[in-house]
Design brief:
alpha+beta; Porin; two-stranded antiparallel ribbon; 12 strands
Length: 328
Protein backbone atom coordinates (compact mmCIF):
# COMPACT_ATOMS: atom_id res chain seq x y z
CA UNK A 1 0.00 0.00 0.00
CA UNK A 2 2.83 2.36 0.85
CA UNK A 3 4.65 1.52 -2.36
CA UNK A 4 1.52 2.24 -4.43
CA UNK A 5 1.02 5.60 -2.71
CA UNK A 6 4.64 6.57 -3.36
CA UNK A 7 4.19 5.83 -7.08
CA UNK A 8 1.06 7.98 -7.22
CA UNK A 9 2.87 10.82 -5.46
CA UNK A 10 5.83 10.52 -7.83
CA UNK A 11 3.57 10.61 -10.88
CA UNK A 12 1.68 13.61 -9.54
CA UNK A 13 4.99 15.52 -9.22
CA UNK A 14 6.57 14.32 -12.46
CA UNK A 15 3.84 15.50 -14.84
CA UNK A 16 3.81 19.14 -13.68
CA UNK A 17 7.62 19.14 -13.64
CA UNK A 18 7.74 17.98 -17.25
CA UNK A 19 5.31 20.75 -18.18
CA UNK A 20 7.41 23.36 -16.42
CA UNK A 21 10.59 22.17 -18.14
CA UNK A 22 8.87 22.23 -21.55
CA UNK A 23 7.63 25.76 -20.92
CA UNK A 24 11.13 26.91 -19.94
CA UNK A 25 12.60 25.36 -23.09
CA UNK A 26 9.96 27.12 -25.22
CA UNK A 27 10.62 30.49 -23.59
CA UNK A 28 14.40 30.17 -23.89
CA UNK A 29 14.17 29.08 -27.51
CA UNK A 30 11.72 31.69 -28.76
CA UNK A 31 11.93 34.69 -26.45
CA UNK A 32 13.09 37.67 -28.57
CA UNK A 33 15.61 38.76 -25.93
CA UNK A 34 17.81 35.74 -26.66
CA UNK A 35 17.97 36.71 -30.34
CA UNK A 36 18.86 40.24 -29.41
CA UNK A 37 21.49 38.95 -26.95
CA UNK A 38 23.14 36.80 -29.63
CA UNK A 39 23.24 39.78 -32.02
CA UNK A 40 24.67 42.00 -29.31
CA UNK A 41 27.29 39.40 -28.44
CA UNK A 42 28.43 39.15 -32.05
CA UNK A 43 28.57 42.94 -32.38
CA UNK A 44 30.43 43.29 -29.05
CA UNK A 45 33.00 40.65 -29.98
CA UNK A 46 33.63 42.25 -33.38
CA UNK A 47 34.01 45.75 -31.92
CA UNK A 48 36.38 44.56 -29.19
CA UNK A 49 38.52 42.82 -31.81
CA UNK A 50 38.65 46.06 -33.87
CA UNK A 51 39.51 48.23 -30.88
CA UNK A 52 42.21 45.86 -29.61
CA UNK A 53 44.10 46.49 -32.86
CA UNK A 54 44.61 50.07 -31.67
CA UNK A 55 44.25 49.86 -27.88
CA UNK A 56 46.08 47.01 -26.09
CA UNK A 57 44.12 47.61 -22.85
CA UNK A 58 41.33 44.99 -22.75
CA UNK A 59 39.30 46.81 -20.08
CA UNK A 60 39.40 50.04 -22.08
CA UNK A 61 38.43 48.11 -25.20
CA UNK A 62 35.38 46.70 -23.38
CA UNK A 63 34.31 50.19 -22.34
CA UNK A 64 34.58 51.43 -25.90
CA UNK A 65 32.59 48.44 -27.12
CA UNK A 66 29.73 49.19 -24.70
CA UNK A 67 29.65 52.84 -25.77
CA UNK A 68 29.54 51.88 -29.44
CA UNK A 69 26.75 49.37 -28.74
CA UNK A 70 24.69 52.16 -27.17
CA UNK A 71 25.48 54.54 -30.05
CA UNK A 72 25.39 52.27 -33.06
CA UNK A 73 23.74 48.93 -32.24
CA UNK A 74 20.83 49.60 -29.89
CA UNK A 75 19.51 52.53 -31.95
CA UNK A 76 19.41 50.40 -35.09
CA UNK A 77 17.35 47.56 -33.61
CA UNK A 78 13.77 47.24 -34.83
CA UNK A 79 10.98 47.03 -32.21
CA UNK A 80 10.60 43.34 -32.99
CA UNK A 81 14.01 42.45 -31.60
CA UNK A 82 14.39 45.01 -28.80
CA UNK A 83 13.95 43.89 -25.17
CA UNK A 84 10.33 43.67 -24.03
CA UNK A 85 9.02 46.99 -22.62
CA UNK A 86 8.31 45.50 -19.23
CA UNK A 87 11.98 44.64 -18.80
CA UNK A 88 12.80 48.35 -18.69
CA UNK A 89 10.65 48.59 -15.55
CA UNK A 90 12.71 46.03 -13.65
CA UNK A 91 14.91 47.52 -10.94
CA UNK A 92 18.54 47.84 -11.98
CA UNK A 93 21.39 46.81 -9.78
CA UNK A 94 23.46 49.72 -8.46
CA UNK A 95 26.48 50.51 -10.62
CA UNK A 96 29.89 51.07 -9.12
CA UNK A 97 31.34 53.81 -11.31
CA UNK A 98 34.86 52.83 -10.35
CA UNK A 99 34.52 49.13 -11.18
CA UNK A 100 35.49 48.15 -14.72
CA UNK A 101 33.43 45.75 -16.81
CA UNK A 102 33.32 42.17 -15.52
CA UNK A 103 31.41 40.73 -18.46
CA UNK A 104 33.39 38.20 -20.59
CA UNK A 105 34.20 39.12 -24.18
CA UNK A 106 31.97 36.40 -25.57
CA UNK A 107 29.06 37.13 -23.21
CA UNK A 108 25.86 38.89 -24.13
CA UNK A 109 23.43 41.07 -22.25
CA UNK A 110 20.50 43.28 -23.16
CA UNK A 111 21.47 45.74 -20.40
CA UNK A 112 24.43 48.13 -20.73
CA UNK A 113 27.45 47.10 -18.69
CA UNK A 114 29.03 49.40 -16.13
CA UNK A 115 31.61 51.81 -17.55
CA UNK A 116 34.26 53.56 -15.49
CA UNK A 117 33.98 57.32 -15.22
CA UNK A 118 37.61 57.94 -14.37
CA UNK A 119 38.44 61.23 -16.18
CA UNK A 120 41.62 59.88 -17.72
CA UNK A 121 39.89 56.74 -18.98
CA UNK A 122 36.99 58.81 -20.29
CA UNK A 123 39.42 60.97 -22.28
CA UNK A 124 41.09 57.87 -23.68
CA UNK A 125 37.73 56.46 -24.75
CA UNK A 126 36.77 59.72 -26.46
CA UNK A 127 40.13 59.96 -28.23
CA UNK A 128 39.84 56.44 -29.60
CA UNK A 129 36.24 56.93 -30.70
CA UNK A 130 37.12 60.21 -32.41
CA UNK A 131 40.10 58.64 -34.12
CA UNK A 132 38.01 55.72 -35.35
CA UNK A 133 35.35 58.12 -36.64
CA UNK A 134 37.94 60.18 -38.51
CA UNK A 135 39.65 57.13 -39.98
CA UNK A 136 36.40 55.88 -41.43
CA UNK A 137 35.67 59.24 -43.09
CA UNK A 138 36.22 60.14 -46.73
CA UNK A 139 35.85 63.61 -48.22
CA UNK A 140 35.13 64.79 -51.75
CA UNK A 141 35.16 68.47 -52.60
CA UNK A 142 34.53 70.92 -55.43
CA UNK A 143 35.75 74.51 -55.53
CA UNK A 144 35.93 77.55 -57.79
CA UNK A 145 38.57 80.30 -57.82
CA UNK A 146 41.15 81.23 -60.40
CA UNK A 147 40.67 77.59 -61.43
CA UNK A 148 38.01 74.90 -61.00
CA UNK A 149 38.99 72.25 -58.44
CA UNK A 150 37.76 68.68 -57.90
CA UNK A 151 39.41 66.61 -55.19
CA UNK A 152 39.40 63.82 -52.61
CA UNK A 153 40.67 63.93 -49.02
CA UNK A 154 41.30 61.18 -46.47
CA UNK A 155 41.71 62.22 -42.81
CA UNK A 156 44.33 60.10 -41.07
CA UNK A 157 43.88 61.67 -37.62
CA UNK A 158 42.22 64.66 -35.97
CA UNK A 159 45.22 66.82 -36.99
CA UNK A 160 46.40 65.39 -40.32
CA UNK A 161 44.85 64.45 -43.64
CA UNK A 162 46.05 63.71 -47.14
CA UNK A 163 44.32 64.81 -50.30
CA UNK A 164 44.65 64.98 -54.06
CA UNK A 165 42.91 67.21 -56.56
CA UNK A 166 42.71 68.20 -60.19
CA UNK A 167 42.56 71.94 -60.91
CA UNK A 168 42.42 73.79 -64.18
CA UNK A 169 40.67 75.91 -66.77
CA UNK A 170 39.62 75.31 -70.37
CA UNK A 171 42.14 76.39 -73.01
CA UNK A 172 41.73 80.09 -73.77
CA UNK A 173 42.55 81.90 -77.00
CA UNK A 174 42.60 85.59 -77.94
CA UNK A 175 44.69 88.51 -79.19
CA UNK A 176 46.83 90.70 -76.97
CA UNK A 177 49.22 93.64 -77.43
CA UNK A 178 52.40 93.23 -75.35
CA UNK A 179 55.39 95.60 -75.48
CA UNK A 180 54.33 96.98 -78.88
CA UNK A 181 53.76 93.53 -80.41
CA UNK A 182 50.48 92.02 -81.55
CA UNK A 183 50.18 88.38 -80.55
CA UNK A 184 47.64 85.59 -80.89
CA UNK A 185 47.65 84.14 -77.36
CA UNK A 186 46.81 80.56 -76.35
CA UNK A 187 46.77 79.66 -72.63
CA UNK A 188 46.43 76.28 -70.94
CA UNK A 189 46.32 75.81 -67.18
CA UNK A 190 45.96 72.38 -65.54
CA UNK A 191 47.55 70.88 -62.42
CA UNK A 192 47.33 67.61 -60.51
CA UNK A 193 48.26 68.05 -56.86
CA UNK A 194 48.98 65.89 -53.80
CA UNK A 195 49.01 67.49 -50.33
CA UNK A 196 49.50 66.86 -46.63
CA UNK A 197 47.23 69.03 -44.46
CA UNK A 198 47.95 69.86 -40.83
CA UNK A 199 45.13 71.12 -38.56
CA UNK A 200 46.80 72.58 -35.43
CA UNK A 201 45.05 71.28 -32.29
CA UNK A 202 42.43 69.64 -34.51
CA UNK A 203 40.94 73.03 -35.43
CA UNK A 204 39.33 74.32 -38.61
CA UNK A 205 42.38 76.07 -40.09
CA UNK A 206 45.05 74.10 -41.90
CA UNK A 207 48.57 74.44 -43.26
CA UNK A 208 49.20 72.55 -46.50
CA UNK A 209 52.38 71.26 -48.10
CA UNK A 210 52.39 69.48 -51.42
CA UNK A 211 53.60 69.00 -54.94
CA UNK A 212 51.94 69.75 -58.26
CA UNK A 213 52.34 68.20 -61.69
CA UNK A 214 51.57 70.99 -64.16
CA UNK A 215 50.68 71.69 -67.73
CA UNK A 216 50.68 75.48 -67.52
CA UNK A 217 51.86 77.34 -70.58
CA UNK A 218 51.27 80.47 -72.66
CA UNK A 219 51.96 80.59 -76.39
CA UNK A 220 52.48 83.90 -78.22
CA UNK A 221 52.37 83.97 -82.03
CA UNK A 222 53.06 87.23 -83.86
CA UNK A 223 50.24 88.43 -86.09
CA UNK A 224 51.46 88.79 -89.66
CA UNK A 225 51.23 92.22 -91.26
CA UNK A 226 51.32 94.09 -87.93
CA UNK A 227 54.05 96.16 -86.33
CA UNK A 228 56.67 94.38 -84.23
CA UNK A 229 59.05 95.64 -81.56
CA UNK A 230 62.12 93.47 -81.00
CA UNK A 231 64.36 95.02 -78.33
CA UNK A 232 63.41 98.52 -79.49
CA UNK A 233 63.69 97.77 -83.21
CA UNK A 234 60.32 98.42 -84.80
CA UNK A 235 59.22 97.12 -88.19
CA UNK A 236 56.31 95.48 -90.00
CA UNK A 237 56.28 91.74 -89.56
CA UNK A 238 55.01 91.06 -93.07
CA UNK A 239 55.09 87.27 -93.32
CA UNK A 240 57.80 86.83 -90.69
CA UNK A 241 57.12 84.71 -87.63
CA UNK A 242 57.89 85.07 -83.94
CA UNK A 243 56.50 82.07 -82.02
CA UNK A 244 57.15 81.98 -78.26
CA UNK A 245 56.01 79.45 -75.64
CA UNK A 246 56.37 80.13 -71.91
CA UNK A 247 56.17 76.97 -69.79
CA UNK A 248 55.75 76.70 -66.05
CA UNK A 249 57.88 73.85 -64.58
CA UNK A 250 56.38 70.38 -64.81
CA UNK A 251 56.77 69.73 -61.04
CA UNK A 252 56.51 72.49 -58.45
CA UNK A 253 56.26 72.63 -54.63
CA UNK A 254 53.13 74.03 -53.01
CA UNK A 255 52.59 75.92 -49.75
CA UNK A 256 49.16 77.09 -48.67
CA UNK A 257 46.68 77.96 -45.95
CA UNK A 258 43.13 76.71 -45.76
CA UNK A 259 39.93 76.58 -43.76
CA UNK A 260 37.13 74.07 -43.54
CA UNK A 261 34.12 74.19 -41.27
CA UNK A 262 33.86 71.37 -38.78
CA UNK A 263 31.98 68.35 -40.10
CA UNK A 264 30.38 65.46 -38.24
CA UNK A 265 30.86 61.85 -39.26
CA UNK A 266 29.15 62.70 -42.53
CA UNK A 267 27.53 65.60 -44.33
CA UNK A 268 28.27 68.91 -46.04
CA UNK A 269 30.70 71.66 -45.08
CA UNK A 270 32.50 74.58 -46.72
CA UNK A 271 36.21 75.12 -47.33
CA UNK A 272 38.64 77.70 -48.69
CA UNK A 273 42.25 77.46 -49.88
CA UNK A 274 44.91 80.01 -50.78
CA UNK A 275 48.42 78.99 -51.76
CA UNK A 276 51.46 79.38 -53.99
CA UNK A 277 53.06 77.09 -56.56
CA UNK A 278 56.74 78.01 -56.75
CA UNK A 279 58.50 78.05 -60.12
CA UNK A 280 59.77 80.26 -62.94
CA UNK A 281 58.52 80.21 -66.52
CA UNK A 282 60.94 78.97 -69.17
CA UNK A 283 60.86 80.50 -72.67
CA UNK A 284 61.15 78.65 -75.97
CA UNK A 285 61.14 80.67 -79.21
CA UNK A 286 61.08 80.06 -82.93
CA UNK A 287 61.54 83.02 -85.31
CA UNK A 288 62.47 83.97 -88.86
CA UNK A 289 63.24 87.58 -87.93
CA UNK A 290 66.93 87.14 -87.06
CA UNK A 291 69.04 88.79 -89.76
CA UNK A 292 66.20 90.99 -90.96
CA UNK A 293 65.85 94.65 -90.04
CA UNK A 294 69.17 94.37 -88.12
CA UNK A 295 67.55 92.00 -85.61
CA UNK A 296 70.05 89.70 -83.87
CA UNK A 297 69.65 86.58 -81.71
CA UNK A 298 70.61 88.71 -78.69
CA UNK A 299 67.75 91.07 -79.54
CA UNK A 300 65.33 88.16 -79.56
CA UNK A 301 66.62 86.89 -76.18
CA UNK A 302 66.23 90.37 -74.69
CA UNK A 303 62.68 90.61 -76.03
CA UNK A 304 61.82 87.20 -74.58
CA UNK A 305 62.88 88.38 -71.12
CA UNK A 306 60.96 91.64 -71.54
CA UNK A 307 57.79 89.79 -72.48
CA UNK A 308 58.27 87.32 -69.62
CA UNK A 309 58.63 90.22 -67.16
CA UNK A 310 55.39 91.73 -68.48
CA UNK A 311 53.41 88.50 -68.25
CA UNK A 312 54.95 86.71 -65.26
CA UNK A 313 56.47 89.08 -62.72
CA UNK A 314 56.99 86.60 -59.88
CA UNK A 315 58.60 83.21 -59.46
CA UNK A 316 55.38 81.64 -58.25
CA UNK A 317 51.77 81.22 -59.30
CA UNK A 318 49.03 82.07 -56.76
CA UNK A 319 46.06 79.73 -56.60
CA UNK A 320 42.88 79.93 -54.56
CA UNK A 321 39.43 78.39 -54.34
CA UNK A 322 36.26 78.40 -52.25
CA UNK A 323 33.92 75.45 -52.35
CA UNK A 324 31.92 72.72 -50.66
CA UNK A 325 32.99 69.38 -49.21
CA UNK A 326 31.00 66.23 -48.52
CA UNK A 327 32.08 63.64 -45.93
CA UNK A 328 30.80 60.07 -46.14
Amino acid sequence: MSHHNNNNWSNSIRKPAVGVVAALVFVCAFHPVSVYAEDAAAFRARVIKEVLLEVPDLELAKQIAEIRINREFLKQQSPAVKPAPQQALLPKAPIDKRVPIKQPVQGASDQPAAVTTNPKSRDQVNDVLNAQSVKRANDVYVGVGNRVVVGYAYPISTEFSIRADLAGLPTREGNKSIDGNQFAVTESNTSLGAYLDWFPNGGDFRLSLGINANRIRTRLQSVQGTNANINGKTFNTGTEVLDITYKFPLYTPYLGLGYQSAASDEGWSVYADLGLMFGKYDAHARTSMVGLHTVTAADVDTELNTLRGSLFKWSYVPVGAVGIKYRY
